Task: structure prediction
Amino acid sequence: MESDRISVIRVKEVLLVTMPADPDDPTVSALQERVLEAMSGGSTPLGLVLDLSAVDTLDSFFARTVAETAQMVGLMGGRTVIAGMRPSVAITATQLGLRLGNAETVLDVDRALDLLHEPGATR
Amino acid sequence: MNGLAVEGEMVIDSEASIVAVRRAIREATTAMGFGITDVTRIVTAASELARNVFYYARVGSVRWRIVDRAHAVGIELVFEDQGPGIPDVEQALKEGFSTSGGLGMGLPGSRRLTDEMELVSEPGRGTTVIVRKWRR
Result:
């Protein structure tokens, strides 16, 4: 089952998810379920870091799921940071007209963790 | 084009076949020498159009081939289904219009990501969408 490829790792009060290169729709949907489960377990994490550095196709279904997940994480008091989007994917996503909702974007996972841990980083 | 035979056909009838279409089109466009950004554009458009086929008609197909036109070489993708068809093509090409609960950016977005789009649809008979992208 492809959705087994989604793992949510909790590091220093942050949920880290690395997406596979070319996920099918059930895998993308699994992302949302796994993240929301992890958000509600134990002490609430600061937020979610979504590593898209391996992703080579981001279509409207994938983008909508990411935007919805970011919105849900926001309602639970967390921030969502998208890390590592490839230039070709960013150009295509813009031309397709995709919006990623209230997710913030940074170049890589290191910067995402810095952003979530910086002093005064509350919402 | 250097004797390269890039053509194929695939049935679209599941979520797994949307991924299979993306892989096949990525392979074909990479073999044709498209740059990474154009490969991503074509594959993303193919993903949107394959998903439309599956959502609206449940079953359909895609065919792809190299097209030659005076000093230009490109790829042509033909998505075909015998689904419910599109009653108002003009409206379907507008941003944000959807009858499936989607974002309504599949058709207009795919048109922006490719160089040419032709859409023929007859309610009750099915839909054919043809897109072409020329190699720069």
In short: Chain B touches chain A through 27 residues (CB under 8 Å). DSSP finds four helices and five strands in chain B.
